[in-house]
Amino acid sequence: MSVNLEVTAEASKHLVKSREEAFEALFKSEYARVAGIANRVLADPHEAEDVAQEVFINFHRLHSASAQFAPAWLHRAAAHTALNRLRGRRRRERREQAQAPEEASRTVDPQRMLEVNEDRKTVRAALARLAPKPAAVLVLRASGLSYAEVAEALGVGTGQIGTLLRRAEAALRKEVTRGTSI
Amino acid sequence: MFDDPDALTSSDRRHYADCADCQARYAGMAEDARAVATLLAAPGLKVDAASAFERVQAAPAAKPRFGFTLPILRPASRTMFAGLAAAALLVVVVATAFANVLPLFQPKTVEAVPVQITDIQALSALGDYGTITWSTQPQPQVVLSAADAKSIAGFNAPVASYVPAGVSSTVTYAAMPKAVAVFTFDASKAAAAAAATGKPLPALPKGMDGAKLTVTAGPAILEVYGNLKQSANSSSQDINLPQLVIAESSAPVVTSTQVTAKQLENYVLSIPGISKELSAAIKAIGDPSSTLIIPIPIQYATSTSVTVQGVHGVAVGDNTGLGSAVIWIKGNVFVVAGPLKQSEVVKVADNLKS
């Protein structure tokens, strides 16, 4: 009996070790991408890394790192967690400063927008107002994921991604215009 | 077309060359795409995965919350693990179905309700309100053939007349005879649990102290498709994942003394932590005494209503092929699940002969 117990203990140690190793390998291969997705949403490298680590911790708590769907799960969670933070941030900012409306009727000039930090905020605010799926499609694609990877992360057919993406792009531009012309 | 111009067929290309409408639409879409690419530009990100990994390792939350990971996702899982997972699923279903309990509860149909992690945590607190004893222990066992499974369960093992391409023809059978658990409500235990957590818990309704719920689960048969006996040292660990799981079980039966269904439903739904969504979904079910509730964790899965073998069923998952399951009741409770598209799983279910 004692021999059996030792064998079992050894086997379970081996299992734990291989589980940890699989998680480390997954972490190292996907971390940059997951952080990149969060950064695309938040435009804040420090907070993006925070999100990426939170996503990995949640994943590790729930799933095995050798699950086939692990990368898709991580990409989706990165997009949604970052978008949730963005929405939370927006709400906080609105509470803190019921500020004066920005100057009226500006037209959208993408180049100019990126020059000013305030304008970057405007784009993120527009992103936060989009529905979750279009927002996620945009950031995943902009983070360099292929159509197939975006489809897998969001649980939709690859054939739908083109249409979803086009609609999401149009919606974001509309939101940005709306946000800057209040 | 904007992202991948080469994907255009030559006939589409000819059409595009002559169609002003298409050209105008393309110009609009391309402008949107270019503008959005600029808008979504983000500050540069330099990551150090190794030190980030150390930070994550140091975080106390990096351990599995319940001390284990979801069993179906562990590649090294063996047949018994799958059997235990099925038993655990049944326990969760029965625990969530507490709100349905009547002096005699015997489900005839299934219905999905949304649950959140907080709901599961709140419901798990139910265990502190009394004592569980097994009058017949669950004894799942792996058997060699469908005939052996039948001799244990007392009914024929279901036969899949359609199996999707790519699914192994190796089938492992497991069977479990009937198991009976008795849960006795204990007011003093409930009070002690409330004191220990520091949270006010609703008082047990009058007459509930000492009430007994008798839960009968099984007998059940489980069929696992896939070569599970592949060496654990194999370089491709995924081969050990079940490719298709079919289960048939007698519908769980719950009998109770002293408590009525209404009392129990009100009590369970008053536990702190139960979400409004779950509460509303349970209350919305037409005939709870004959409905088996399937809890769907809303953050991780979606469910749809499907028709299987002419009866109403609940399908979990989607058509991505990551994984899906369908559950229905036709006399017994049936489950078909696997890392397959939902449409494939439903097709297997529809062609199942019991």
Task: Please describe the structure with a list of short key phrases separated by commas or semicolons.
heterodimer, A: 182 residues, mainly alpha, 8 helices, 0% strand, globular, disordered N terminus, B: 354 residues, alpha+beta, 2 domains, five-stranded antiparallel sheet, extended
What does this structure look like?
The complex is a heterodimer of chains A (182) and B (354). Chain A is globular, with a radius of gyration of 21 Å. With 182 residues, chain A is an all-alpha fold. Chain A has helices at residues 2-42, 45-62, 70-96, 110-115, 117-129, 132-142, 147-154, 158-180. Chain A has one domain. In chain A, 41% of the residues are buried. Chain A starts with a helix and ends with a helix. Chain B is an alpha+beta fold and 354 residues long. The radius of gyration of chain B is 25 Å and the shape is extended. In chain B, 33% of the residues are buried. Chain B has 2 domains: 10-39; 74-353, no CATH class. Chain B starts with 9 loop residues before the first helix and ends with a strand. Chain B has 10 helices and 17 strands. Helices cover 31% and strands 26% of the residues of chain B. In chain B, the strands form 4 sheets. In chain B, strands 4-6-9-10-16-15-14-13 form an 8-stranded antiparallel sheet, sandwiched between helices. In chain B, strands 1-11-8-7-3 form a 5-stranded antiparallel sheet. In chain B, strands 2-12 form a two-stranded parallel sheet. Chains A and B meet through helix 1, helix 2, helix 4, helix 6 and helix 7 of A and helix 2 and helix 3 of B.
Topology:
The complex is a heterodimer of chains A (182) and B (354).
Chain A: H1 2-42, H2 45-62, H3 70-96, H4 110-115, H5 117-129, H6 132-142, H7 147-154, H8 158-180
Helix pairs in contact in A: 1-2, 1-3, 2-3, 3-5, 3-6, 3-7, 5-8, 6-8, 7-8
Chain B: H1 10-18, H2 20-39, H3 49-58, H4 79-96, E1 104-105, E2 109-115, H5 117-124, E3 130-136, E4 141-143, H6 146-153, E5 159-160, E6 171-176, E7 179-185, H7 187-197, E8 212-217, E9 220-225, E10 244-249, E11 253-256, H8 261-269, H9 276-284, E12 291-297, E13 303-308, E14 311-317, E15 324-330, E16 332-338, H10 342-350, E17 352-353
Parallel strand pairs in B: 2-12
Antiparallel strand pairs in B: 1-11, 3-7, 4-6, 5-17, 6-9, 7-8, 8-11, 9-10, 10-16, 13-14, 14-15, 15-16
